[in-house]
Design brief:
This protein is α/β, with parallel strands linked by helices and 288 residues long. It is built from 7 helices and 13 strands. A 6-stranded mixed β-sheet has the order 10-9-8-11-13-12, sandwiched between helices. The protein has a 5-stranded mixed β-barrel with strand order 1-2-3-5-4. The chain has a two-stranded antiparallel ribbon with strand order 6-7. The structure holds guanosine-5'-triphosphate and zinc ion. The site of zinc ion (ZN) has 7 residues, from helix 6.
Length: 288
């Protein structure tokens, strides 16, 4: 048996990449009885019937599984924001960083459209690098940062997410030439792009795999609780020496995080967005 990765599934057929070959596979009958199906991203063991077809004999244990898009074993999420047009929404950046980290997925903050505002892009990436995140400036138009982005994709399964119009489809097209995803023009009137991307497939990009469908469309922080929220802030961690063990870093006395904000050691906006997300999580907990 050979081990491969499921790149896509259509109507009961799974396309499994083993080395340089893609096999069209069906699931062994036992999976139907167990009501199990394979997910894109699954590592599977197959027996080949010939050089093009095979049978999935075993689905290896999943490290994680996203619901939208349905993909297993996601290692990394590219959080794509535009340097301008549309302007980056700091609250959405922080929200996605928390959401992704809480799933155990490594976030890579990509500031695209670097050509439109090079200085703004530098400022933003410097801020988030200082906060402990991996960042990259790209441009789907000039090609800036694309070789580096490819390196970040190597040997992993990545999904792309971010707001409409940030250039997600453009980046996917630039990384996987030959594929032509539709890209939407940003309407200047409303400043938002159209949602044009649809089906789910893992694209082979260099040595890695990239989902062609954007993820994390649900914006609720259902996977985080109020006690652990601050732990997804690497920039808070060194200062989380507060008087109260359960400190949520709001109005508690002798809070190390608040002190660090006052001393300019933690970015103000990061902290304000934290408070906003904390309120949201607390409200969620009150309701359930
Ligand atoms: N100047 C510039 N324009 C870009 C860049 N990347 C994408 N665009 C343009 O921005 C617009 C939106 O790009 P898309 O790739 O459709 O954005 P998206 O994030 O996939 O948007 P949705 O499908 O709505 O989620 C298009 O007109 C692109 O041509 C870039 O790096 N620089
Ligand atoms: Zn505190």
């Amino acid at each position: 048996m050979e081990t491969g990765i499921v790149l896509k599934g259509i109507g009961g057929y799974y396309y499994v990449r083993v080395g340089d070959t893609v096999y069209e596979c069906r699931l062994r009958g036992k999976f139907r009885k167990l009501q199990q199906t394979a997910l894109v991203g699954d590592e599977v063991k197959i027996t080949s019937l010939n050089r093009e077809q095979g049978v999935i004999e075993e689905i290896l244990p999943r490290r994680n599984a996203l619901i939208r898009p349905p993909i297993a074993n996601v290692d990394q999420a590219l959080l794509v924001f535009a340097a301008a047009n549309p302007d980056p929404n700091r609250l959405l950046i922080d929200r996605l960083l928390v959401q992704v980290s809480a799933e155990g997925i490594h976030p890579l903050l990509v500031i695209n459209k670097g050509d439109l505002d090079p200085e703004g892009a530098q400022r933003l990436t410097a801020l988030y690098r200082a906060a402990g995140f991996t960042t990259l400036i790209t441009s789907a138009v000039t090609g800036q940062g694309l070789p580096e982005l490819k390196q970040h994709l190597a040997t992993r399964v990545s999904v792309i997410c971010g707001p409409s119009g940030a250039g997600k489809s453009s980046l996917i097209n630039a990384l996987a030439p030959g594929l032509s995803l539709k890209t939407g023009e940003v309407s200047d009137k409303i400043g938002r792009g159209r949602h044009t991307t649809r089906h789910v497939e893992l694209l082979t990009v260099g040595e890695g795999w990239l989902a062609d469908t954007p993820g994390f469309s649900s914006l609720s922080l259902h996977n985080v609780n109020s006690k652990e929220l601050a732990h997804f802030y690497p920039d808070f961690l060194p200062y989380m020496q507060c008087r109260f063990p359960g400190c949520m870093h709001r109005a508690e006395p002798d809070c190390g995080v608040r002190l660090a904000v006052e001393q300019g050691l933690i970015d103000q906006t990061r902290y304000h967005n934290y408070l906003e997300l904390l309120e949201e999580v607390l409200e969620q907990e009150r309701r359930y």
